[in-house]
Amino acid sequence: MYRFFVIQxxxxxxxxxxxxxxxxxxxxxxxxxxxxxxxAVVLTLxxxxxxxxxxxxxxxxxALWAMARGAIPAGWYGAGFVVLGLVYWNTFQSRVPLYLTxxxxxxxxxxxxxxxxPRSFVDLGCGTGTVLCILAAHHPDIRFVGYEVAPIxxxxxxxxxxxxxxxxxxxxxxxxxxxxxxxxxxxxxxxxPMPALGQxxxxxxxxxxxxxxxxxxxxxxxxxxxFLTEGTMPLYLYRQEGNGHGRIPPACS
Length: 253
Prior knowledge:
Elements: H1 2-20, H2 29-46, H3 53-68, H4 74-88, H5 91-94, H6 103-116, E1 120-124, H7 130-138, E2 143-147, H8 151-160, E3 167-170, E4 184-187, H9 194-204, E5 210-214, E6 225-227, E7 235-239
Parallel strand pairs: 1-2, 1-4, 2-3, 4-5
Antiparallel strand pairs: 5-7, 6-7
Helix pairs in contact: 1-2, 2-3
């Protein structure tokens, strides 16, 4: 996320520094803030930042400027608070923010699903359902299931999956379900719940099944494989072996 603010800073320096040097006219401060938003969008595209950053990059400084001028009615702040609550929901309790899987990582995940050919796949905290819907469209013979507690991301995911008969999203915590029915699980959480997730895998997943964690390791458990994609964080593949008691093999050399 630090890249977001770096882009904001660089674009602000370019725009406002250029105006001081007389490189372009300055009709008004409002014009400069909008121009900075355009430059921030261009920089985001150049560094291949997430697409969902684009409207945020464009609106970030203009919104701050409007707030400073008192141009935004007070009711909008309350509405914004409600919307953020519906998006992030129990983040304060779970310590798991809304992470969106990078497209390069998703392509690697798609390759792994094709090679592993599971009969069922579960996304633990599926957010807006992007991972599930893309994989379900590419692999119609696999059953895809997602669990998400935040209302707005879940609704977005349900809408995306409306035409995919092999994809189901539940508004429910994955901590309250058993992983025993799934061949492959995927999680993009945070460091905080990873110890508990490792124990859940050991208790519930069947022998021969696997869990892929995006970015974050499960402490005390060695991944079976680690997959790296350029410019993104690693995918850690953990495999349940033995009789279901969770003996995790050493990392592959």
